[in-house]
Amino acid sequence: MPEGDTVWLTARRLHTALAGKLLTRSDLRVPRFATADLTGRTLLDVTPRGKHLLTRIEGGLTLHSHLQMDGAWRVFTPDERWSGGPGHQIRAILATTTHTAVGYRLPVLELIRTSEEPAVVGHLGPDLLGPDWDFEEAVRRVCADPVRPLGEALLDQRNLAGIGNVYKCELAFLARVTPWLPVGDLPPGVPERLIATAHRLLEANKERFDRRTITPGDRPDRKLYVYGRKNQPCYRCGTPILRKEETGKDRISYWCPGCQSGPTG
């Protein structure tokens, strides 16, 4: 599932290409909105909210989309060939005279009134990359349930919006605890440092797209500490990284048994 930094950059690319321009084509390929025609309306802005994308359109309309596991928006110029998947995976097309945005494999795509946006994003906690970022409130929400595993607390978008599986695993490694350690068992001051680190890392990576880097330095072969590194040696202690898939949750955890203390599921 894309992380908040990926969604932020996707929104910026869509906004840069389309905002302030008249739509010359609109095609929403979901049954409920297949007859909706936005042609002739001005696309006002594209705003990220956690992992949600809000594309606001003249006339008080918002196209709400969520990438979930493998959705994507791609932007093309008129002379570019569309790439991002086969045609049957296209769920949305928004075009101006200069650019075309194509949404592939979008599991959530709905046209709503802009005034109804709180119904789809109002439940979210402080946005790590948003203008409303509230550090103290994010800490309060994460620590509100002390028996909850750290990984679950970080992934819960009602606590703070923008963290996905990659950051969950990397943040737990940086805290030297496993993702299954109850939040209340974290040493004093660790929740605060963890959330401050999450904010710093997403800010640092929000313009990198597929070049996300958590480790220090600029080595292309050492971008992440644990995520995706099953059986490879830990950069700190050399212990092979472990991987565990949580059945029914579509979540995979990576951790170093040498560096990280706590339960293992």
UniProtKB/TrEMBL annotation:
Entry's EC annotation: 4.2.99.18
Protein name: DNA-(apurinic or apyrimidinic site) lyase
Signal recorded as keyword: no
Residue span, FPG-type domain: 225-261
SUPFAM superfamilies for this protein: Glucocorticoid receptor-like (DNA-binding domain), N-terminal domain of MutM-like DNA repair proteins, S13-like H2TH domain
Family to which the UniProt record says this protein belongs: Belongs to the FPG family.
Organism whose genome encodes this protein: Streptomyces ficellus
PROSITE patterns (UniProt xref): FPG_CAT, ZF_FPG_2
